[in-house]
Amino acid sequence: MAFLALLLAPAAQAQPRQYIDVGSPDFRPLPVAIAPLQTDAEARAAATEIAEVLTSDLTLSGIFDVLDPRSFLADLAEGLVASQIRFARWADVGAEGLVKGKVRRGPGGLSAEMHLFEVRPGREALFRTVEDRSPRAIAHRFADDLVQYYTREPGVFRTRIAALRRVAAGREIALFDVDGHGAAVAYREPFLLALPAWRPDGAGMLVTSWRGGSPAIWALDLARGAVRTAVTLGDLTTGGTFSPDGRRIAFTASERGNSDVWVANADGSGARRLTTDPATDTSPTWSPDGRRIAFVSDRAGTPQIYVMDADGGRQKRLTFQGNYNQTPRWSPRGDLIAFTARDERRVFDVFTISPETGKIGRVTQDQGFTNEEPSWAPNGRLLVFASDRNRAPQLVVSTPDGSRQRVITADPAGLAQPAWGPLPR
To answer: Which residues pair with 301 in a beta bridge?
Structure first.
């Protein structure tokens, strides 16, 4: 990226801004119009792609209702400054936000000038100038800007999602953009791999590997594609996950046939057992403040979700519905834990539960036989999980209530155990 500038327009700085409270009872998606981007013949295809990807991102976010361009009444040739825009014509089609822009192609790639206008007050809210070779990168960047502007929270469209793929040479970790594009192989080895978990800075992952003969937790350096032993303890060690500050690892270890939840320092030293029940305790996940850990235990007879303090104290059962609950993942917002549950038809679906009230929400239903292994976007506004609704398991991105879902991949080999990466730094 050669040049990047984001500015709040003077009018937006001087007047109260419009915000979207996504969690409020009266929340509704904000209607946004994306006008055709101004361009010339040389950059027309890129401009079209930017508009299409931006539309896709905003729709997927669950925060915006992108209006159909066929409904537009305004003169699409009007200018890019507020004085040249007939805002009443955009209000007539229900738009509250208006995106306009201009795209050119130069020697260094594409140059895009992107504007956001608030329709009712008739003012420019922000603009960004970006130079990049990728139309998709420009669109993802501005989609994040719009989310940030309206919600005061970071957008996630420049993050990456990791997933496991089975190949003839063994197993590999593949990386995808949030919309399923930009696939790349981060790591491959001829052994069984499982349970990838990102380092908070995005520079590496923990992964469970059988490369030593029995499952152990290995640390993957993404830049070098190299692994080293992170934690190995007892008969097997699996499912390592970093604390939010990156200083500790929670994991499952089995000694003499009994699996428990443990924690260790990030370098694997100082391992300490947190659960001591003779039942099977597995699948730890940290609360965003690092003070609590949710996990799975069958101490009550069936696998259920439990919560405890990060030092192992105050262990209590959280789920009481269903007889097979697993793979908990704590939202970065702290308000929900997503998990997989099997119903009486032996169908797996994704659910959420409030760690404070125990209220259950259902994300999937009658969408294939297996929806499992949820992982949260770093802003807690979206989930990704694996689903067989299109036969071979693929990645699905969904709002936490399940109201908007999109299958984002079509990988012939199928994909499993997605892990949503952190925000770019």
So the answer is: none
